[in-house]
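Record type: ASSEMBLY
Status: queued
Input:
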Amino acid sequence: MSTERTFEESLKLLEEIVEKLEDQNTSLEEAMILFGDGVRLSDECAQKLENAKQSVHALIEKDGKMEKVEFVGDEE
Amino acid sequence: MEQALTVSQLNQYIRMRLERDEVLQQVCVSGELSNVTLHRSGHIYLKIKDEQSVISGVMFRFNAAGLDFVPKEGQRVTVYGCITVYEPSGSYQIKISAMKLDGKGQLYAAFQKLKEKLERLGLFDQQHKQPLPRFPKRIGVITSPTGAAVRDIIRVCGRRYPQAEIVLYPALVQGEQAPDSLLTAVEWFDANRAADVLIIGRGGGSIEDLWAFNDEALAYAIYNCEIPTVSAVGHETDYTICDFVADVRAATPSMAAELVCPDSDEFAKRISVLRNRLGKALDNKCQMLSARFTALRNHPIFKDEERLLSRFYMRLDEQNEQLYRDIKDLVDIRTTRFEKAVIKLDALSPLATLARGYAAVYDGEDQILRSFESTRIGDRLRIKLKNTTADCSVEKVEIEK
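Status: finished
Output:
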């Protein structure tokens, strides 16, 4: 499992796993694997949610091109 | 002045006095329109008022034709004209030669006109509205880099969905250059696909302050923008062209940020719900399988062991018997065959011959003799006759010719 998945991809995958696990036709062996994957994914999602740090950029013009710089807003 | 005037004479005198007054013959007055009647004849009858006072007015067809707006109740206007007296009713009024909307009123009229035009052209049609992305990775913000709007947006996004990067395009949000500045920003984001969703807006202000957001070219830029747009101009009660043409109108910049950002708390809840479902699904599966297993194990066939086995025992017995019968048959057949063979053999046996009275003669080496040709006198012979044996010695040998 790649760690490069975005949060929303992980969440979508988790939803799919839950649905598959809830499917009556899934074998027990498969279900055990799905369960393990699901727990790992939900940890991953929760972690991503907690560790997210907002990034704010402002665009400034440089040589006719717009460039991103860290935005530091004016403190009131 | 004992002589009384007639009413007509008085009104006539007042009319003459007023109509000769220079100030009253070239008045310019500002006020709010009320009781506007657009008469079929083309004349307009109206009242102009302020907080304390009101004056009637009339604008005849000839002058009314020159108006660049349709007078409506509540509009703030400045009118030019002269005071006239209508003698039959003893009332005075202002005969209006020209009328224009006041600053705000003028802007409002221009706004209305542009709004109606763009609406007619279909720029506000619901079918052109794009849905906002569920999980924006980059939120483009077009507004002033200073001021409350940008702060509110950053704060709300940071609280609800810090996963998303905010890309601010600093823009002028009021003044003559503002429409161009806003338009450039929209087009830059669109051309560079630099965001998944755009918030364009500013904080509250007067209609003049918000005027840049009523620009026609800007409206088209937003309309043509392939990135979903959220307009957030001013306060809840402020409406601009931008609000109508954007995919979503937010009452305030903070609201725009809320509309654009999914809520992380909701995600946290959703993850825990999904996690519960994971556990429950596995539990259910185990329970279901276990129930199936139990049902199978409790099947009568396993319960009644004897019955199950008795069937096998019966079959075993049957088979045994069959086997026994088969073997017996086999043995019987062999026995009979053997007995027959024995009888046959018996018939051929030399013993049987002996029994019939024949004798067998053996030489000294116990070899049976078929002739006495080589027998010499004095040889020892053994003769068997039925069950008896006699050892003899040869006295004479005769060979028959």
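Annotation: Residues 250 and 292 of chain B are 56 Å apart (CA to CA).
Annotation: Chain B has a mean pLDDT of 88.
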